[in-house]
Amino acid sequence: MRWDSLFDDLESQLERELTAEELDLEREDERLRLARLGMRDRLLAAGGNAVVLHLGVGHHRVRIADVGRDWAAVDAEGPPAWSGIVPLGSVDSVGMPAVLARSTLGGGPLADGGGSGQPSLTERLGLGFVLRDLARRRRFVRIETASGMLAGTIDRVGRDHLDLAVHPPDAPRRESAVSEVRLIPLEQVQLVRLA
C-alpha cells in the first residue's frame, strides 16, 4: 500500500513537471511569434475595422484597405470621405480598440506566420511603385507633409523624392495652370490623399 501512494505521488509530480514544461514551450513559441510580428502584419490583421492613424500632421480615423511593403491604402471613416496612401514610416502610432489589439496577439491568421509563407504581389510593392502608378494615371492628389499640404499632380517619382506639379484642383495639369513644381523627399510624405 505504501508503495502505491509513493508511485501515485511520483506520477503526479512527473505530470505537473511535464505540464509546466509544455506551458513554458508554448509561452516561448508565442514570444518568438510576436518577435517576428511587424506593424504591417498588425495592420493587415485589423481587417475592415476602424483604426486611428496618428501622423505628424494629425490623426485620421480610417479603415485599412490594403497594406504593401512600406505603405497602407486607407479609406477615411468620416466626412469628408477620401482614400489615400500612408507611408508606414510616417505613422507615429495606431489607435485601435483593445479587443482588436488583443485578438491579433493570440492566434488567428497571423499565428502561422502570415499564411503560405510567400508574400503576395501587394506585399512586395513599395511606396515608389504606388506613387509612380499615380503619376502615370495623372491623378490629382493632396500630399501632406510636416510643413503643410500641397495639391497637384505627381509628375515623376525618383528613388528618394517626387516632383509635384502644384495646380488648382479644378484645373487639369497644364503648363498654364501649374504655379510651381515642388520636389518632395519621400521621407517627408506623411499622407497622399486621392481626389
Helix-and-strand structural type: alpha+beta
What order do the SSEs take from the amino end to the carboxyl end, as H and E?
HHEEEEEHHHEEEEE
CA radius of gyration: 25 Å
Shape: elongated
Q: Which architecture of the largest domain would the CATH scheme give at its second level? A: Roll
CATH class category of the largest domain = Mainly Beta
Number of strands: 10
Q: How large a portion of the residues is in β-strands, by DSSP E?
A: 25-35%
Largest sheet: 10 strands, antiparallel
Low-pLDDT residue spans: 107-114
What is the strand arrangement across the widest sheet? 5-1-2-3-4-10-6-7-8-9
On the 0 to 100 scale, the average pLDDT is: 85
Helix segment count?
A: 5
Briefly note the CATH topology name of the largest domain: SH3 type barrels
Quick description:
With 195 residues, the chain is of the alpha+beta class. It is built from five helices and ten strands, in the order ααβββββαααβββββ.
